[in-house]
């Protein structure tokens, strides 16, 4: 079966952190997806809009929400980054294909859940965390979000509201290049993780972020920390 193609309209494109944009689009009638899936966007070249290439972005909205949401971190010189920063505005129509992807919660798992991400890799975990809370209200859920500096952080209030309504959910933030004023966790997520989670081998783990982090964390989980292969789920991006 062919993947559906839709035309959706941008309703907001807002910079919310250092080189991070929060973007919303209209949701087509009858559009359904599983938290964790992504959309493939037709992205034009800013200098030549007729030159179009596909780019994938995780859906950051929950299926119950009325709009589709993305979070995009700019990459210097990147095609999609220039499009988001210089072209994409509210009211603009965009062609997308999807939903796509197999990164989703495994409903048959009985273990507590651990989400680990860097930067915009938190996007799929916003809806996945809400879904996990709905499905398993008694299961512990931890999310570790790593960025470089404090100015890279976003969604703290929003994620805080989600966990505040669920006593078993927790969000942790780590900076790899913190200032002296930062009182939170310090270091890369793969360094910080074993200092805050003592039962890694007994968690159902979901990881999303830059390929270097995901590759290293996969090796640590499967080769050093005793995580069964079937309990480790990964989504990388460039």
The CATH superfamily of the largest domain appears as Nucleotide-binding domain of ferredoxin-NADP reductase (FNR) module
Low-pLDDT runs of 5+ residues are: none
Percentage beta strand: 35-45%
- What is the CATH third-level topology name of the largest domain? Rossmann fold
Distance between the termini: 28 Å
User: In oligomeric terms, what are we looking at?
Assistant: single chain
How is this fold's topology laid out?
Layout: E1 5-17, E2 20-26, E3 38-45, E4 48-58, E5 67-73, H1 79-86, E6 93-100, E7 112-118, H2 125-135, E8 141-147, H3 156-164, E9 169-175, E10 185-186, H4 189-196, E11 203-209, H5 211-224, E12 232-236
Summarize this structure briefly:
The chain is of the alpha/beta class.
Explain how this protein is built:
The chain has 238 residues and is α/β, with parallel strands linked by helices. The chain has 2 domains: 5-100, Elongation Factor Tu (Ef-tu), domain 3; 112-236, Nucleotide-binding domain of ferredoxin-NADP reductase (FNR) module (Rossmann fold, 3-Layer(aba) Sandwich). The chain is built from 5 helices and 12 strands. The strands form 2 sheets. A 6-stranded antiparallel beta sheet has the order 4-3-6-1-2-5, covered by helices on one side. The two termini are 28 Å apart.
Features:
238 residues; alpha/beta; Elongation Factor Tu (Ef-tu), domain 3; Rossmann fold; 2 domains; six-stranded antiparallel beta sheet; six-stranded parallel beta sheet; globular
